[in-house]
Amino acid sequence: MDSLQSIFQQVALIDEGEVTADDRVNFFHVVTPPFDSESVLYATKSHAMDRFTALLQAAPHCGILVRHGIPQVADVSWIRHFVGNRKLYFLGDCDPFDLLVYQAVASEFDMNFLGISDRFLSAMDVELKPSLSVAIEGAEARAWEMLLETRAPIESWVGEKCFGMLNQGRKMEVEAVVSYACQPLTKLFDCIP
Questions:
Q1: Sign of the C-alpha dihedral computed for residues 128, 133, 139 and 141 taken in this order
Q2: Which residues pair with 87 in a beta bridge?
Q3: What is the dihedral of CA 127, 133, 179, 70, to 10 degrees?
Q4: Cβ distance 78 to 156 under 8 Å?
Q5: Of the four listed, 38, 141, 161, 178, which is most buried by Cβ atoms within 10 Å?
Q6: How far apart are CA 37 and CA 87, in angstroms?
């Protein structure tokens, strides 16, 4: 697997700043975990921080790191210190850019995928439907091609059905599933193995 820096540089060539924008634009939101906590959730939805407060009520022993896009190499050491010996989980969309973010962060950390996947949909009692997905276009289509070229184990991250959706040129966002299911985001904890 490539390093975070290598992935960042490759993605910067095709993403039009979507996930590699200047750090002054994409900063971290941090909810510090209690000392005895066992897990940290790394999420890409910085505009949904208010929804993560419900997660804290459901899992008070969970820390949260939220940042849109791929972190900088300079962030790795403090993230490593923040996570410590805790399990690290990734929450993101089933789309090429979030999967590239997952691949980049997972190149530096032992991380479990908890984003939109067959397992996530099952926990939310949602059937994979075309109406919940949107087309992959433009830079994101180039990002999908890049992901496939890396031979990353995408299907093992998202499951057979969601991988099939991606291969059909469709993507799905966390907000679509949570809104459709009328389930709280806290249901994602049912996905943790």
A1: positive
A2: 39
A3: 120
A4: no
A5: 178
A6: 9
Q: Which residues contact 72 (CB under 8 A, 6 or more apart)?
A: 8, 23
Q: Whole-number mean pLDDT of the chain? A: 82
> In this predicted model, what pLDDT tens digit does every residue of 7-62 receive, in sequence order?
888 888 887 777 776 665 567 777 777 778 788 888 887 655 556 556 556 565 67
Tens-place pLDDT, residues 107-153: 999 999 988 999 888 888 888 888 889 999 999 999 999 999 989 99
Q: Which pTM was predicted? A: 0.86
Q: Find where tokens 């939310």 sit.
A: 124
Supply φ then ψ for residue 112, to 5 degrees.
Answer: -105, 135
SS3 91: strand
Q: How many CB atoms lie within 10 A of CB 16?
A: 14
Both tokens of residue 149?
Answer: 């070229």
**Residue 71: both structure tokens together:** 């972190």
Token digits for 88?
């690290």
